[in-house]
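Q: What structure does this chain adopt?
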Amino acid sequence: MAATTGTASAAAEAPLVDKKWLAVAIGIYSVFYAWVRWYEGVYGWSAGLDAFAPEFETYWMNFLYIEIVLEVTTASILWGYLWKTRDRNLQAIAGTREELRRNFTHLVWLVAYAYAIYWGASYFTEQDGTWHQTIVRDTDFTPSHIIEFYLSYPIYIITGFAAFIYAHTRLPYFDYQKKGISLPYLVVVVGPFMILPNVGLNEWGHTFWFMEELFVAPLHYGFVFFGWMALGILGTLLQVFASFANLIGRELCGEEVYSGGDAAQWPE
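A:
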């Protein structure tokens, strides 16, 4: 009983919107990518123009190996932690305040995902086109690609699936056990994720055709198709707003009055 009381008390004292975590997320991405851009600016020109030079192996291939190991490790730990600590009885959340706090925390995850997508699918993607219009590639693993495809893309993928897991294991509205998986949410994380496998097709095409760098070439249509799936965020936000609306409705009207009908159906 004492432990239960302590948990409820801690939940009541936790801030509804923890701006600290939002600042930390945006700050980490900003500082890290500023450093990455500095690294590319310095060593891209001095050590990244000849894939057969010893310095390319030192400054770029080692960079590639390290980032892949760190990404796999980070994804395993983060996704595993979110799943391991999931709420196994979402319909028994103690109090409206705790559910509201989780909804705001979910928004922090979505903001972090959107910011990570900007860096990967916008900034570094456009920069990659500029790089290859200026310097003809002599390998698929150019400095620009090592940062764009194998660093910034996995980072937003890791963030997006973490947000997806958080929503479906912490919020009653997205309760995977009662409602299954949210289709808009699935689109908004799987679509941009598929940009990464599409890299294989892209590099295969560049091996046979000289396109440095024609963005409108049919070879690049896959990037556009999967990138536009990020618009699934519109449907996801409608469900996020519905989650807030359900919470407000239960608080104002009472659980019995407001929850009429089958709560296990999409959408509410």
